[in-house]
Write a structure and sequence with these properties.
- This protein has 326 residues and is mainly α.
- It has a two-stranded antiparallel sheet.
- The N and C termini lie far apart (43 Å).
- It is built from twelve helices and two strands; from the N terminus they run ββαααααααααααα.
């Protein structure tokens, strides 16, 4: 007979906005099963994920259609063109491997039960706090790029060399490795495997987790090798304009989350009441949703950018990759 494991999450005060259940005692059943299945899904995504299809077939096609010309091959001429390119390339990069982890940050941010307008207003609050963290990081990094970007690894256009890691690859591995592990840790905290790092600070600042998740999304730009972003990076670096670099990178980040934010607001407005009621009808459901999204995103991000990348550079002998994703 299979033993049903139960774990009680105590002392979580963040609510849906804090990425952990608000019930003082939320029972998570079979938490090892939740962890195992979530990690397996994250791993399988790294096996089937095709960067060429997402970056070129989807991303480049969207950007070319909006701008009316080849986004990657056409030089960015002037600040106005740069601003348009920044937002458009961010929008086109919504579903890239760099940005897909952002869905793990937004999925648990559900509003409260109430009228449709009330749910919409409640949904805007966590999005606002998340955007604050994202804007601060992306603006700061954009300013750095505007000041010293030509000397940074991301400025390089050198092709990858088998058996070696370029400075650009090392930067991507470090940044996305840290982001992936941070998301994985928060997912484990939601299941009670590790201590919640925001338990104390959330008592005074309930939005701390949400701001932190926004900062992680802003951090995507620090390691991002997406071709359209690198085009923008080089333009901001060569401009030597700190304000332009900051504005362009903020618009890139906003473009990254527009589709995700619209979907989130639509769910909150039209299905949020029923969904929230279902989540709160049984202790532990919100913790499971939070854990699953963060663990899947964290495992995918770490394995894709740190382990699979090593295999693609022929530094480790093998990593399972689907034929269409080679």
């Amino acid at each position: 007979m299979t033993r049903v494991e139960e774990f009680t999450v105590r002392g979580s005060a963040g609510g849906a906005h804090g990425l952990l259940p608000s019930d003082p005692e939320a029972v998570v059943r079979r938490r090892w099963l939740v962890l195992g299945v979530s990690a397996l899904v994250g791993f399988l995504l790294t096996v089937v994920w095709s960067a060429e299809f997402v970056d070129q077939t989807i991303g480049a096609t969207i950007a070319d259609g909006i701008l009316g010309h080849s986004a990657e091959d056409t030089p960015i001429t002037g600040v106005v063109a740069g601003v348009a390119f920044a937002f458009t390339s961010g929008l086109a990069g919504t579903f890239t491997a760099c940005n897909i982890a952002a869905f793990g940050a937004v999925a648990p941010l559900l509003g409260t039960v109430g009228s449709r307008w009330g749910r919409l207003v409640q949904a805007l609050k966590p999005l606002g706090w998340m955007s604050l963290g994202m804007v601060v990081v992306s603006a700061a990094y954009g300013a750095v790029v505007g000041a010293v970007g030509t000397a940074m690894p991301q400025f390089s256009q050198a092709d990858p060399v088998p058996g070696e890691l370029s400075g650009r690859s090392v930067q991507s591995m470090v940044v996305f490795g840290v982001i992936g592990l941070a998301m994985l840790y928060l997912g484990l905290a939601a299941l009670g495997f590790v201590k919640d790092p925001f338990a104390r600070v959330s008592r005074r600042f309930p939005q701390a987790r949400t701001v932190f998740m926004g900062a992680l999304i802003g951090g995507f730009l620090i390691g991002r090798p997406y071709p359209l972003f690198r085009h923008l990076f080089r333009d901001a670096a060569e401009s030597g304009n700190v304000l332009y670099g900051a504005a362009a990178f903020v618009l890139q980040s906003i473009g990254n989350i527009v589709i995700m934010a619209v979907l989130f607001l639509a769910i909150a407005a039209f299905a949020g009441g029923r969904l929230q009621a279902w989540l709160m009808s049984r202790p532990g459901r919100l913790a499971v949703l939070t854990a699953v999204t963060l663990i899947v995103a964290g495992v995918f991000t770490f394995l894709y950018w740190d382990v699979r990348l090593l295999a693609r550079r022929e530094i480790i002998p093998w990593y399972p990759i689907a034929p269409w994703a080679q």
